[in-house]
Amino acid sequence: MPMAEHHGEDCCVKVAVHIRPLIGDERLQGCKDCVAVVPGKPQVQIGTHSFTFDHVYGSTGSPSSSMFQACVSPLVDGLFQGYNATVLAYGQTGSGKTYTMGTGCKDGSQTGLIPQVMDALFNKIDSLKHQAEFQLRVSFIEILKEEVHDLLDPASVGKVEVGSGHTGKITVPGKPPVQIREGSNGVITLAGSTEVDVSTQKEMAACLEQGSFSRATGSTNMNNQSSRSHAIFTITLEQMRKLDTVFTADGVPIEDMTEDYLCAKLHLVDLAGSERAKRTGSDGLRFKEGVHINKGLLALGNVISALGDEKKRKEGAHVPYRDSKLTRLLQDSLGGNSRTVMIACISPADINAEETLNTLKYANRARNIRNKPIVNRNPMSSEMLRMRQQLEFLQAELLCARGGGVSSDEVQVLKEKISWLEANNEDLCRELFEYRNQNTPSDLCETDVQKARTCFVKPEGLKRSLQSTDTFDYQMSEALRADDNSKEIDEVAKEWEHTILQDSMGKELNELNKRLEQKEFEMKMFGGVDTLALKQHFGKKLMELEDEKRTVQQERDRLLAEVESLSSDGIAHKSPDIHLQKLKSLEAQILDLKKKHESQVQLLKQKQRSEEAAKKLQDEIQFIKAQKVQLQHKIKHEAEQFRQWKASRERELLQLKKKGGEMSTSATNSKL
Ligand SMILES: Nc1ncnc2c1ncn2[C@@H]1O[C@H](COP(=O)(O)OP(=O)(O)OP(=O)(O)O)[C@@H](O)[C@H]1O
User: Fold this and answer.
1) If you count Cβ atoms within 10 Å of the first and of the last residue's Cβ in the chain, which end, N or C, has fewer?
2) How confident is the model at residue 50 (pLDDT cuts 50, 70, 90)?
3) Cβ contact 341:400 at 8 Å
4) Rounded to the nearest whole angstrom, what is the distance from the C-alpha of residue 275 to the centroid of ligand 1?
5) DSSP per-residue letters across 303-364
6) DSSP 458-472
7) Over the stretch 493-540, which tens digit does the pLDDT of each residue have?
8) How far apart are alpha carbons 113 and 106 in whole angstroms?
9) Does this model's pTM top 0.90?
10) 76 pLDDT band (50/70/90 cuts)?
């Protein structure tokens, strides 16, 4: 069964450099600006080094205010077409990452990229609301000391004092930590993190603010509000697009075939400071954090190196995504299924020159990474789209048939095919509708059936249902419902897959039969022509030989008679003439025989060629016959497998129903 529409387009990770101005402390220390921008070019120079990027903002480069429009706005547009996207802010502590992203509690909160993303997102939704239905969710997590924390967890205690003057974050006892999971299709998901449904820009901004406050911050020698963790703010956009109406053969509009489902995620990542631990002047707890931060960034550097090296990439060298939580989470965005922009933030101060150079080198390598974004479409939607196309095709065929005077039998077959497709489509749409209603929104964005099976049951979903039932009953029914639901989807998918497979194998068999018929016809024609030609040739040859025999006999008779009459007359002087004539006649006979021999050779060659061609045709016929037998076995085998699967599903369902009945009886008994 096709999973999603794959229109893979290779695209490089885009890299922009953002140079902030010299800030208060740097000015007080008398720092000098050591970074230059080549006028009119996205080129940065530091010392003797020169780097070219996709864009350069700040200093004498493009104004920072144009960054969103050029770098991030196309990614927001891509979300509406179903493409995932990622924006990464990279750079040393104090270089302006938080300011650039707008993840801080105050700095850049109005002008940062995330608030601008929100503006663009809601404006676009507003302009498209007549063509599609939208659903938005956000999550906000941070990775600190190789642990993933949920910044939107309402039950979290928040910041607590850890050691002298430092703040840290703890999770609620008993709450399982956020887990990074990888689906069978390679999609990375976070199990256990809160996803908040948002319907207004205000709600989304509130989530950003809440998470930013929760984010672990602490002081270092370099920056009072230094972020020691990687923060990832994720926006998920689901949309149900309205398509052009499709009509049945009788001109009735098909309501259910007018929608297409797309789902895409935008990760906005504010990475921790990239400087080395020794420069932070940290010790004890802070130093440990520094080591962990560097572990994530070190792994990120290694991933960038592996992906940025064209030779290694072509050789399929190992990419160490699993070396840290950060790289594991960003696996999709680096060399995977995402459009990615990296913003390298740098300080212009000469005191930071070494770290700035490191950042520029990193960023330069990231430009070589190639991603392969795909449209994330729900498998059901993909099937619906396929069916839609098939239906339209059949309708066109039917129209042609009506106009082209095709037999009423054929029209009838086409009509039946269409109604069968329509009925199937209705079933699929109903499944999709139920699936949508029964599942939490996060389940909907899964891109394959396998994912639907392993989906995570969200705590909000639990709370909603607790109003009508007690915990035990709820969990039981929810588990069964989730199980049933995924099985139903499985069943529809499998049945559909079976039908498609049988249909395509049937077509293949028809094709083989046609080819076989054609070859057998050719063989017959070939054989007929060949026999006739040979027969004619040999007949002629026989007649020629007969004639020759007769002529030689007559000649012999004539010569004998002549010799007899000469000897009786006693004329001896004529004898040399007679011998001369005889010799001539014999020479003529030899010439004639030579010609006959040549024609015999030609005949033999022709016969050989005919035999070869006949053998080839015969082999082709045998091969097609073998293919036909194989395909017939395959069709039978697949049908048998499907029958067995169906029977086992029915048994399973029966057992589940029985089990469900028993469970609710025992639950009722225990309540009593
Ligand atoms: N483009 C800019 N214009 C003016 N001030 C800026 C700019 N970028 C950053 N700053 C200032 O520089 C300081 C450090 O910025 P910021 O906190 O964003 O750095 P950071 O890279 O996120 O640091 P950390 O890694 O410690 O979180 C802040 O006081 C911020 O206001």
Assistant:
1) C
2) very high
3) no
4) 14
5) HHHHHH-HHHHHHT----GGGSHHHHHTTTTSSSSSEEEEEEEE--BGGGHHHHHHHHHHHH
6) PHHHHHHHHTTS-HH
7) 677 677 778 877 887 888 888 888 877 777 766 555 455 566 566 667
8) 14
9) no
10) very high
> Is the CB of residue 212 below 6 angstroms from any atom belonging to ligand 1?
no
From CA 519, how far away is CA 515, in angstroms rounded?
6
186 is in an annotated binding site: no
Mutate to test the pocket of ligand 1, among 56, 90, 98, 269 (most ligand atoms within 8 A of CB): 98
The ligand 1 atom at the shortest distance from the C-alpha of residue 18 is 1
Atom of ligand 1 nearest to the CA of 101: 18
Q: Is residue 93 marked as binding?
A: yes
Ligand 1 atom, smallest distance to 224 CA: 26
| Residue 179 amino acid letter | Q
Highest mean pLDDT among 417-421, 515-519, 564-568: 515-519
Q: For atom 14 of ligand 1, which residue has the closest CA?
A: 94
Distance CA(324)–CA(599), nearest Å, equals 85
* Cα 343 to middle of ligand 1, angstroms: 13
Whether the CB of 274 sits within 6 Å of ligand 1:
no
Q: How far is the CA of 359 from the centre of ligand 1 (A)?
A: 15
Q: Which token pair is 374?
A: 């795909």
Give the span between the Cα atoms of 235 and 461, in whole angstroms.
Answer: 19
Q: What are 616's two structure tokens?
A: 């080839």
- How far apart, in whole angstroms, are the C-alpha atoms of residue 577 and residue 588? 17
Residue (of 660, 265, 322, 242) closest to 484 by Cα position: 660
Average pLDDT score over residue span 90-119: 83
State how far the Cα of 576 lies from the Cα of 226, in Å rounded to an integer.
133
Per-residue pLDDT at 228 exceeds 80: no
Do 339 and 371 contact (CB within 8 A), yes or no?
yes
ipTM of the complex: 0.98
Query: What does the block give as tokens for 529?
Result: 């022509």
Residue identifier of the C-alpha nearest atom 2 of ligand 1: 20
pLDDT value for 580: 66
What is the whole-number distance in angstroms between the Cα of residue 178 and the centre of ligand 1? 29
